[in-house]
Amino acid sequence: MSSVKTTTIVGAGIAGLTAALALARKGIASHIIEQAPALEEVGAGLQLSPNASRILADLGLLDALSARWTEPDHILLTSGSTLAPLASVPAGAAARRRWGAPYGVLHRASLQTVLLDAVRAQPLCTLTTGVRIDNAETALAAAPADVLIAADGVWSQLRQTVPGALPARYSGNIAWRFLVPYTAAPPSLNPRTVMAFLGPHAHLVAYPLAEAEAFNIVAIHARSEAPPEGWSRTGDTPARTRLASAFAGWHADVRRLLNEARDPLMWPLFGCPDGTWTDRKTVLIGDAAHAMTPFAAQGAAMAIEDAALLAASLAKTVDPAHALRTFEKTRRERVARVRSRGAFNRFAYHARGPVALARNLVLSLRKPDDLAADFDWLYGYRTPE
Length: 385
What we know:
With about 375 residues, the chain is an alpha/beta fold. It has 14 helices and 16 strands. The chain has a domain at about 5-70 and about 100-165 and about 270-350: 3-Layer(bba) Sandwich (FAD/NAD(P)-binding domain), CATH 3.50.50.60. The longest helix has 30 residues, at about 320-350. The protein is globular and about 60 Å long. GO terms for molecular function: FAD binding; monooxygenase activity.
């Protein structure tokens, strides 16, 4: 029987809410503390790959999610300059067959709503909003518990209290995010497909958000100088000029999409370098521990995996500190491999010249099922119990 009966979770984002539900499933109570006075939409869309949706299904959330998301038929890699297809990975029904769970795309706010509704319906979970937590002592004074879980994101305050944890660092890339209504989208966008357009030093991802009846657009380009710290902001004229310059050689449909974007938000991409995630009875999860750039579309999935493994670890321990160390070791190996995949994707997506030509040739020779097999280690992952 576990010695952990209660946890305090700082942060009511995807990591914190999923952790509370996963712990409740193991009979462990959680009190979630969120500094925002109300939980509001952050960002736009996200992709939930089978390694994440499998965990959410185990938590009883699949029906609620299925009512809100789209399961795309394919993930398509496309040339940004010509719009010629380069490679296709089967998704939809093929994802369910191959990886035993669905691949869905939805609005980030929709996932948060589903998680929040489940938390509010769970007797072992409580939530307090409008309280800022700056350190472990304040958190445990507000809600005493056996374990403190820091799920407070890339700008985590609690990370600063964990010896050996490292601050977030600018990645050298900027992401622009905005929505394009189906009715205003170019014909090159398909409401049944996740599309990644590739080009030198930049790429653009588009996928449908059923509830918004719009495509979520994420355009990422390199920018060497670090912007001021922060999360999203409306880009000024010089920033919009740099965006246009980054995609200057691209197909007219893509350039028009960017030039006509309404209220795009500019997100400087920060990541957390490898550092310590645990200290006695405190553990960092999600972006607070290992924020990563979106080149593998695994940020939310890694937070969800964290939540599942942490709950499994704490449910069977008589020594919480040992359980947290074991959790960190196990997750570090998995996160490192996902980071490596993201780094490879960044290189491949942003390739130019002969490297890009070689990439296109290699992709053209790969069959869809062979490409899908490359994701078995990622999408077929099951949380160790």
